[in-house]
TrEMBL record:
NCBIfam families for this protein: Ac_CoA_lig_AcsA (TIGR02188), PRK00174.1 (NF001208)
AMP-dependent synthetase/ligase domain segment(s): 101-488
Any one of the GO BP annotations: acetyl-CoA biosynthetic process from acetate
Catalytic reaction equation(s): acetate + ATP + CoA = acetyl-CoA + AMP + diphosphate
Modified positions (N6-acetyllysine) in chain numbering: 626
AMP-binding enzyme C-terminal domain location: 547-626
UniProt xrefs under Pfam families: ACAS_N, AMP-binding, AMP-binding_C
Name assigned to this protein: Acetyl-coenzyme A synthetase
Keyword Zinc-finger in record: no
InterPro entries linked to this entry: Ac_CoA_lig (IPR011904), ACAS_N (IPR032387), AMP-bd_C (IPR025110), AMP-bd_C_sf (IPR045851), AMP-binding_CS (IPR020845), AMP-dep_synth/lig_dom (IPR000873), ANL_N_sf (IPR042099)
Length: 663
């Protein structure tokens, strides 16, 4: 079979380089779609040769439609305009809830694990979910919400968050979930941008041993948002809050009084489902608009394959529903498969750093999906936190959000997966709606730091700066996608020009991801970081991820970030910000610098050695846990008068301390 025509995968080379790759895990393969590498290629080949037939068959086989489509796909990247399943009619909640009632009505749809491990966990069956979503949908209607209206949801990870999302989808309202760790001003900006009529929130939230005054934040935000007519408030922490007469209502009594039957609104496949703002690592957040039919098909199909979900498995994604990962892989993808999805209210460090593993044991979690930032934080701690728990239920591990460095990958593989659970390193974006490049567990051999191969239907291309596609292997470039896929965002909310300019203008007829990637000798992809972060030193293009990976390999290093700063001779030079593990803190800093530099020289090359290495207590991060390199760039360039939009910054206090220690 000639695979190379379809996605650059070189089977001949693969087997030659096989020893470099992690072993193929032996699977238990009943009831599963893509079973092995050979089958992946068959499926992939079909998805590229006949994309419309490919997606049509999946859509027909796995979902409930009120009316079939006239046309599978219509697209033009120059406008850009993409339509999947034109004129098809459906309601996504029928697919996520109603159709499972007969066969799985009494099975848990959601397992909810509270912040405090002394509080009882909840198992919400499909029948109960149906009831709650219908009641909630009726409450929305009673408060004047109609199809197409925007509803802002600012809730902690409590069941009402999932109910709220699905209730909106039930009646065709467009939800805009804002992560409940954002500030009042970030919330106000998003509420205004989406022009929301309603806000759904809680009195407060628990976060480890702290409580957060959510309602207070909402009140402050709404001072700037006069068009929000109604605020529904979930009682969670029983705090004293002020309720504004006529505007604010407690949710629970309204739910209890509402009917538990709400006919689903029949939606067009291309009707909007939700707006979600990107996490804001790079600048002003963009309100990505996702539509109904294609999003459902893609998230459900990827979920099933990438997590190898089998009947009765318990799946846990630790993300917050406030991010795309939570939308697609806590709510819609799992529920469309009739899966059991775990929602966790708390944080990995409460009551101690063993909490994740305690939850895995308690609920016998089979698939566990988290982010590199969490893995690195936990890997810093004593292994006792892991070893106390029985993790034998785990079958598949996942990571998303940032490039995962090699050391963290091995820690995850050895200590959590016990070297028997494949790690799916899933690359994707808010804009892509679903996972784009990832191993298929038990089929694609994994390789640390590599997202490996494109999912069926995804046609990646690496582009050079002149706009030409770079063919062949052992190359790197800007990562683009050449062909539409069902769950791609259709526009930036009320700013189609920005959508076109950001994603479709850099390379003709291609979606530009903003990320850089390399393709190795067999055709596996590795994401090297954001293209904006690529640093050109003495004419060499250096991605941040491989350098940080080399630094993090040093036993004294916990985490690091590399940025460029202007240099008279080289054009740019590198500046490294490095957090040490406790064990490294007492060491001589000059020696450490030398060792780190040596490690970079060995692993990446001497050109990648930073001019400056500053040891820091912490790194500025977004609330989704990603390093905000644009702030570090300003600090490295000694240009700290205006740090730009910092409303999405998790830990502003570390910025000050880094500035004080600048070299
Ligand atoms: P903004 O677009 O506002 O700057 P963001 O890009 O951080 O925010 P997301 O859509 O949540 O918002 O994140 C997508 C980005 O995260 C990708 O473009 C990529 O840079 C990074 N990413 C996600 N998954 C992976 C992965 N598995 N490996 C490497 N990088 C990843
Ligand atoms: Mg982005």
């Amino acid at each position: 079979m000639d695979c190379s025509r379809f996605n650059n995968f070189r089977k001949d080379r693969f087997y030659r380089f096989f020893h470099l790759y992690n072993s193929i895990y032996t699977p238990n393969m009943s009831n599963y779609h893509i079973k092995n590498l050979e089958e992946y290629f068959q499926v992939y080949r079909k998805s590229v040769r006949e994309p419309e037939n490919f997606w049509q068959e999946i859509a027909e086989e796995h979902f409930v439609w009120r009316q079939k489509w006239d046309k599978v796909l219509d697209w033009d990247f120059s406008k850009p305009e993409v339509k999947w399943f034109e004129n098809a009619k459906l309601n996504i909640t029928e697919n996520c809830i109603d159709r499972h009632l007969l066969t799985k009505g009494d099975r848990p749809a959601i397992i909810w694990e509270p912040n405090d491990n002394q509080e009882e966990a909840l198992k919400i069956t499909y029948k109960e979910l149906h009831k709650k979503v219908n009641q909630f949908a009726n409450v929305l209607k009673d408060h004047g919400i109609q199809k197409g209206d925007r509803v802002c949801i600012y809730l902690p990870m409590i069941p009402e968050l999932a109910y709220a999302v699905l209730a909106c989808a039930r009646i065709g309202a467009i939800h805009s979930v804002v992560f409940a760790g954002f500030s009042a001003s970030a919330l106000a900006t998003r509420t205004l941008d989406a022009d929301c009529k309603m806000m759904i929130t809680a009195d407060g939230s628990y976060r480890g041993d702290k409580t957060i005054d959510l309602k207070g934040i909402v009140d402050k935000a709404l001072d700037q948002c006069p068009d929000v007519e109604t605020v529904l408030v979930v009682k969670r922490i029983e705090s004293e809050i002020s309720m504004k007469e006529g505007r604010d209502h407690w949710l629970q009594p309204l739910m209890e009084a509402a009917s538990d039957e709400c006919e689903p609104e029949i939606m067009d496949a291309e009707d909007p489902l939700f707006i979600l703002y990107t996490s804001g690592s790079t600048g002003k957040p963009k309100g990505m608009l996702h539509t109904t039919g294609g999003y459902m098909v893609y998230t459900a199909y990827t979920f099933k394959n990438i997590f190898n979900y089998q009947n009765n498995d318990v799946y846990w994604c630790t993300a917050d529903i406030g991010w795309i990962t939570g939308h697609s892989y806590i709510v819609y993808g799992p529920l469309a498969n009739g899966a059991t999805t775990l929602m966790f209210e708390g944080v990995p460090s409460y009551p101690d750093y063993g909490r994740f593993w305690e939850v895995v044991e308690k609920h016998q979690v089979n698939q566990f999906y988290t982010a590199p930032t969490a893995i690195r934080a936990l890997a810093k701690k004593n292994l006792d936190f892991v070893e106390k728990y029985d993790l034998s239920s785990l079958k598949v591990l996942g990571t998303v959000g940032e490039p995962i460095n090699e050391e963290a990958w091995h820690w995850y593989d050895n200590n959590i997966g016990k070297s028997k659970s494949p790690i799916v390193d899933t690359w994707w974006q808010t804009e892509t709606g679903g996972i784009m490049i990832s191993p298929i567990p038990f089929a694609t051999p994994t390789k640390p730091t590599f997202a490996t191969l494109p999912f069926p239907g995804i046609q990646p291309a690496l582009m050079d700066e002149e706009g030409k596609e770079i063919k062949g292997n052992q190359v790197d470039g800007r990562l683009c996608i050449k062909y539409p896929w069902p769950s791609m965002a259709r526009t930036v909310w009320r700013d189609h020009d920005r959508y076109r300019d950001t994603y479709f203008s850099a390379f003709e007829n291609k979606y530009f991801t903003g990320d850089g990637a390399l393709r190795d000798e067999v055709g596996y992809y590795r994401i090297t970081g954001r293209v904006d972060d690529v640093i050109i030193v003495s004419g060499h293009n250096l991605g941040t991820a491989p350098i940080e990976d080399a630094i993090n390999e040093h036993p004294a290093v916990a985490e690091s970030a590399i940025v460029g700063f202007p240099h008279d001779v080289k054009g740019n030079a590198l500046y490294g910000f490095v957090i040490l593990k406790e064990a490294g803190e007492s060491r001589n800093q000059d020696n450490l610098r030398k060792e780190i530099n040596q490690q970079i020289a060995d692993k990446v090359g001497p050109i990648a050695k930073p001019d400056k290495i500053q040891f820091v207590e912490g790194l500025p991060k977004t609330r989704s846990g990603k390093i905000m390199r644009r702030i570090l760039r300003k600090i490295a360039s000694k240009d700290t008068s205006d740090l730009g939009d910092t409303s999405t910054l998790l830990n502003p206090e570390v910025v000050e301390s880094i500035i004080e220690g600048t070299l």
